[in-house]
Design brief:
By secondary structure, this protein is an alpha+beta fold. It contains six helices and twelve strands. The strands form four sheets. It has a four-stranded mixed β-sheet with strand order 1-2-4-3, with helices on one face. Strands 5-6-11-8 form a four-stranded antiparallel β-sheet, with helices on one face. Strands 7-12 form a two-stranded antiparallel sheet. A hairpin with a 4-residue loop joins strand 5 and strand 6.
């Protein structure tokens, strides 16, 4: 487990009444994730590409799927809200809230599998869209949704925001876009039926040179 000491900077003052440093300590004890509750870290995650600003309770940067599951279980026990965040490119404040931010973009950012027979790719939520397109391009395929922030936005964030982009009409011909893969039990303390979208299934389709188009 994560045995590193809490960051310096004095006592943590929660932006949500009722929370204390015990939440931070429990997150460190239950996960191997980077747990960041310093004032500086919280300020970094207080804004996205919009005009909104909401200082989070703290930030969890998971190293594994289990880190996400365990972090959510801890937050549930504390009654703390949770917000999954990608690259922070949303322009309507979707990435900002007084919650525990879970940022998968640092460690969970790989293409796990490209299944040519099924026309699908299985990816981690922190994968950048262009990295998926580049991987699909090696098979002569593309991925239809293409928001203007394709160089930075993550697949997990795209699923959360139902992202499309100006080239998304290609999805009609080359695949319907991202869908969640409900495969991992999440927040076991909440419900055995609650599942995690910590891996995503992205539908890709073959098309000559289609994956080479960029904004």
């Amino acid at each position: 487990m994560n045995t590193s000491s809490p960051p310096e900077g004095g006592h943590y003052q929660s932006v949500v009444s009722g929370f204390s440093r015990t939440l931070e300590a429990d997150l460190r004890a239950a996960t191997d994730a980077e747990v960041r509750f310093s004032a500086g870290d919280r300020a970094l995650y207080a804004a996205d590409a919009s005009n909104y600003r909401q200082v989070p309770i703290g930030v969890v940067i998971p190293r594994s799927v289990d880190d996400i599951v365990n972090a959510i279980a801890v937050c549930h026990r504390h009654g703390a809200p949770v917000l999954a965040r990608g690259a922070g490119t949303s322009i309507a404040g979707q990435c900002c809230n007084a919650a525990v931010i879970i940022d998968a973009s640092k460690h969970l950012n790989r293409v796990l599998e490209i299944d040519r027979a099924a026309g699908k790719a299985r990816v981690q939520p922190g994968l950048v869209l262009d990295d998926l397109k580049d991987a699909a391009n090696t098979h002569g395929w593309t991925f239809g949704p293409d928001p203007g922030t394709h160089r930075w936005c993550t697949l997990g964030g795209m699923i959360g925001n139902n992202s499309c982009g100006v080239h998304s009409v290609l999805s009609e011909f080359y695949g319907p876009g991202p869908t969640t893969a409900m495969t991992k039990p999440m927040a076991r303390a909440c419900s055995a039926e609650m599942k995690s979208a910590v891996s995503s299934s992205a539908v890709v389709r073959g098309a000559p040179n289609a994956a080479t188009s960029r904004e």
